[in-house]
Amino acid sequence: MGVTLQSFNYLNRWLNIHHKSICELGDQQFMLCPPFPENSYTKQHWTNKGLNHVYLDINGRGNCLVVDLNEDVEINQQFDFITDFGTLEHVNNFYMGFKNVHKLCKVDGLMLHILPAPGHWPNHGSWRANIKFFMKLSKLNAYKLLDCHIEPTRIGGKNSDQIYVVMKKVIDSNFICQEDFDSLGATQEYDLEKYEIGKGRIL
């Protein structure tokens, strides 16, 4: 989706001096986020702040690590802060996307998601998850759910509801199994192949 002023301000509510590393899903760029230049990559900002920064994307742009979040990501590093600004709804294997986030996050690290709410932003990505999904996900993985709310977000000249979520990984444990994840109630509202293939987005 890109980092808007709204999402950037939300992130900065949770980022603190104890966070030394940040992993962003997608080759994130600033979008309508003054004073940053439009479509400039966020990496420069985070490295200027002294953070060890990594992008993960399948498209290879912006000096990102080329990975497919549909598969088990093999990176010999964990991070204090993981951001998902509108990426996981584009990942066909929704389960593996969240499993990778879990694996990449350090104990006591934070996982931040801003994703389209169910019924909003039609034909953008495929997956939708509601507040109950994140409440159940947090409980089953023993995360501490720090925030979970729906907020109108200005996108393409109109407001579209998005879910804003921050979870803290409290213990070092395996991610839940596929069966338990499938019971959480995420829905595949749109045909991902029809709308996403060929657009350079994470598949």
Concise summary:
With 203 residues, the protein is an alpha/beta fold.
Protein described:
The protein has one domain (5-196): Vaccinia Virus protein VP39 (Rossmann fold, 3-Layer(aba) Sandwich). It is globular and about 45 Å long. The protein is built from six helices and nine strands, in the order αβαβββαββαββαβα. Helix 3 links the parallel strand 4 (79-85) and strand 5. The strands form two sheets. A seven-stranded mixed β-sheet has the order 3-2-1-4-5-8-7, sandwiched between helices. The chain has a two-stranded antiparallel sheet with strand order 6-9. It has 203 residues and is an alpha/beta fold. It has helices at residues 5-14, 43-48, 94-104, 131-140, 178-182, 192-196; strands at residues 21-25, 52-57, 65-66, 79-85, 105-116, 127-128, 143-155, 158-169, 187-188.
Which helices and strands occur, and which strands form pairs?
Layout: H1 5-14, E1 21-25, H2 43-48, E2 52-57, E3 65-66, E4 79-85, H3 94-104, E5 105-116, E6 127-128, H4 131-140, E7 143-155, E8 158-169, H5 178-182, E9 187-188, H6 192-196
Parallel strand pairs: 1-2, 1-4, 2-3, 4-5
Antiparallel strand pairs: 5-8, 6-9, 7-8
Instruction: Give the number of helices.
Output: 6
* Name of the level-1 CATH class: Alpha Beta
Compressed to H and E, one letter per element, the order equals: HEHEEEHEEHEEHEH
CATH topology: Rossmann fold
Oligomer classification: single chain
Category by helix and strand content: alpha/beta
Binned strand content: 25-35%
Whole-number average pLDDT? 90
Spans of at least 5 consecutive residues with low confidence: 194-203
| Number of spatially distinct domains | 1
The CATH homologous superfamily = Vaccinia Virus protein VP39
The CATH level-2 architecture is identified as 3-Layer(aba) Sandwich
Strand segment count:
9
Strand order of the largest sheet: 3-2-1-4-5-8-7
- Major beta sheet summary: 7 strands, mixed
Q: What is the helical fraction, as a range of percent?
A: 10-25%
